[in-house]
Design brief:
44% of the residues lie in helices and 10% in strands. The protein is elongated and about 75 Å long. It starts with 12 loop residues before the first helix and ends in a 12-residue tail after the last helix. The protein folds into two domains: 155 residues, dinb family like domain (Four Helix Bundle (Hemerythrin (Met), subunit A), Up-down Bundle), CATH 1.20.120.450; 176 residues, NADH Oxidase (3-Layer(aba) Sandwich), CATH 3.40.109. The protein has 370 residues and is an alpha+beta fold.
């Protein structure tokens, strides 16, 4: 184990690029449908599935190179048959979501190996498939260049995947959980800043709504309804923004608003459904977790004019507006340039009551300790 101290300047440029690409690519890939991912432009061309599979194979081979070059002096490493690997791994018939997860996992593994390498490793050399001598620094930088070429060919924009400088990334605020929790729950929080110039794609909106649709509910009643203001009707979006109370004026900058609504009664007998609002909450939690998975920020708000929303959007009797939800791509700018109140609010650590304050063992006066 090396005791070398590394500075960012010692690292190949590709490592910083790879960090950003790993974080920002999966949500973009998730917007590609299974059908489109599996379609070959011609019999002799790869489908998007096979092209991403090729990048998985590239990650596997380059991870091995990073390790072997550190273990051996100037090793002669083999190349690999990209078409053969793609065929033998049956990428054409694999589920698209599985391949996206694999791409991310292989690159996280490669990045971990690269970040663990001492500064002296990057000047070590190897040959690949009979090439001239190559430094390990060249190998990792070339790997990222190669990856970006294929991601652009798939249809992703380089400007969406790479951010120059950590200060431009909207802050991740992982939950300081007492025990390990699901990564989407860990990462979900409620920002108040959005990339104003970027609209949320229709495909992403449909994924959010489909996620909400599959939430559990009492008797499978499915009482949740959503009004969607995506900017396609600018007047409707303005009316939704004008329903927000002044304390939520920041949400008027979000490119997408949704209003969750609960059906008050059961459909089978029209008796009051006391679980309806609970079930809308379940659906909305599905929605905001799906937003995290898509690289979106979502913030639910109680602060809006309920009666005005009824009138503005012709919500019928028997339905109760519940929450306005601001959704958009996270703000990417220099947080230091924000006013102090906004910066402090966005960077404030997350906190929750302890388990002992919310859970009780058998009787209300005995905190659950596990």
């Amino acid at each position: 184990m090396s005791n070398e101290t590394k500075q960012d300047g010692d690292l190949p440029v590709g490592i910083g690029r790879l960090r950003s690409i790993i974080r920002r690519t999966p949500p973009r890939l998730a917007l590609i449908s299974e059908e489109n991912a599996g379609r070959r432009p011609s019999p002799k061309q790869w489908s998007i599935k096979e092209e991403l599979g090729h990048l998985i194979d590239s990650a596997a081979n380059n991870h091995r190179r990073i390790i072997v070059v550190q273990l051996e002096d100037s090793p002669a490493l083999p190349g690999y048959d990209g078409d053969g690997w793609a065929s033998l791994n049956s990428y054409a018939t694999r589920a698209w979501a599985e391949l996206v997860d694999l791409w991310r996992a292989f690159n996280v593994q490669l990045l971990a190996a690269a970040e663990a390498a001492p500064a002296s490793a990057w000047s070590r050399t190897c040959t690949i498939g009979g090439s001239d001598s190559l430094t390990l620094r060249f190998v990792i930088d070339d790997y990222v260049d190669h990856m970006m070429g294929h991601l652009r060919h798939i249809g992703l924009e380089a400007s969406d995947l790479e951010v120059d400088g950590a200060e431009l990334e909207y802050p991740e605020k992982p939950a300081p959980a007492a025990v390990p929790i699901n990564s989407l729950i860990d990462r979900r929080w409620s920002p108040r800043l959005f990339a104003k110039e970027r609209r949320v794609e229709k495909e992403a909106i449909l994924i959010l709504l489909e996620s909400a649709r599959w939430a559990p509910s009492c008797f499978n009643e499915q009482p949740a309804r959503y009004l969607v203001f995506d900017g396609s009707d600018s007047e409707a979006l303005d009316r939704a923004r004008n329903c927000l109370v002044e304390g939520n004026a920041w949400a008027r900058e979000a490119p997408l608003l949704m209003l969750s609504v609960a059906r008050d009664n059961f459909t089978f007998n029209e008796s009051p459904n006391r679980h309806a609002q609970h079930d809308v909450g379940l659906a909305s939690e599905n929605l905001v977790l799906a937003a995290v998975d898509l690289g979106l920020a979502a913030h639910q708000m109680a602060g809006f004019d309920l009666e005005r929303s009824r009138t503005e959007f012709k919500i019928p009797s028997g339905f109760t507006p519940m929450a306005m939800i601001a959704i958009g791509y996270p703000y990417h700018g220099d947080l230091a340039s924000l006013d102090e109140k906004t910066r402090t609010r966005e960077l404030a650590p997350r906190s929750r009551k302890s388990i002992g304050e919310i859970a009780f063992e058998g009787t209300w006066d005995k905190a659950y300790e596990g």
